[in-house]
């Protein structure tokens, strides 16, 4: 007759079996189940809320991006006057920011001399680019979001860009303003958050609008 295994060994074997069981349940079965449900019920959201134009992915409704003209050598970038501009981004170390693999802010406090200097210069630049007084430049035009990936801007920031975009595209101010209104989203449930403008879809609509 075989000698019974010591209690400590039996306990270890029991623990190992439970570890394997819960690894299969929680590490394989549950993720596969949730993935399957999400693909069936929320396919667009589960795949990144991607935005397509003529079958080609041009961005995500959840992630901001730049609308700039990059030099051939890739060393400089300037905002494209034909497009509404997004909020600044401190995500990543690249030229344009908006790196979804490096989401984050500058982590500089309001008392930082560097931050104050950067904001002052950016405010003057944005005012000049859009042909408005610096007093009309809203906060979100010069401040990056906490994630650096905010896809929306405030209606106030969109409003100061209307004349510039209309002139660059040879469109009427009224036509451009109508698109801004169309792509302005109200507060969630009527009271959560702030009104915001969907920059990516607004710019897509501009490209599809004829002068």
Task: Label this structure with key terms.
43% helix; elongated; three-stranded antiparallel β-sheet; 211 residues; single chain; mainly alpha; 3 domains
Protein architecture, described:
The chain has 211 residues and is mostly helical. It has 3 domains: 9-43; 87-150, no CATH class; 151-211, no CATH class. Helices cover 43% and strands 10% of the residues. It contains 7 helices and 7 strands. The chain has a 3-stranded antiparallel sheet. Strand 3 (68-70) and strand 4 form a beta hairpin. Helix 5 packs across helix 6 (173-182). The longest helix has 35 residues, at 7-41. The mean pLDDT is 90.
Number of beta-strand segments: 7
Helical stretch count? 7
The order of strands across the largest sheet is 5-7-6
What is the helix fraction of residues, given as a range? 40-55%
Number of domains: 3
The biggest beta sheet, please? 3 strands, antiparallel
- Which structural category do the helix and sheet elements fall into? mainly alpha
Note the gap between the termini: 94 Å
Q: What letter string, H or E per element, gives the SSE order?
A: HHEEEEHEHHHEEH
What is the radius of gyration?
Answer: 25 Å
As residue ranges, the low-confidence spans are: none
Task: Please sum up the structure shown.
The chain has 211 residues and is mainly α. It is 43% helix and 10% strand.
């Amino acid at each position: 007759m075989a000698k019974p295994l010591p209690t400590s060994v039996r306990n270890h074997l029991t623990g190992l079996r439970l570890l394997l069981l819960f690894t299969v349940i929680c590490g394989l079965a549950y993720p596969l189940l949730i993935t399957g449900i999400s693909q069936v019920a929320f396919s667009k959201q589960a795949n990144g809320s991607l935005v397509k134009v003529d079958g080609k992915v041009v961005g995500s409704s959840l992630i901001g991006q730049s609308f700039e003209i990059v030099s051939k050598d890739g060393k400089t970038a300037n905002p494209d006057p034909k497009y509404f501009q997004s909020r600044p981004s401190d995500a990543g170390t690249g030229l344009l920011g908006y790196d979804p693999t490096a989401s984050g802010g500058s982590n500089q406090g309001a008392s930082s001399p560097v931050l104050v200097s950067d904001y002052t210069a950016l405010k003057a630049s944005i005012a000049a680019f859009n042909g408005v007084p610096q007093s009309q430049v809203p906060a979100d035009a010069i401040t990056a979001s906490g994630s650096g990936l905010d896809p929306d801007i405030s209606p106030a920031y969109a409003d100061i860009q209307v004349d510039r975009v209309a002139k660059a595209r040879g469109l009427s101010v009224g036509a451009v303003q109508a698109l801004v209104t169309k792509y302005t989203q109200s507060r969630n449930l009527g009271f959560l958050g702030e009104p915001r403008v969907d920059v990516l879809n607004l710019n897509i609509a501009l490209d599809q609008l004829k002068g």
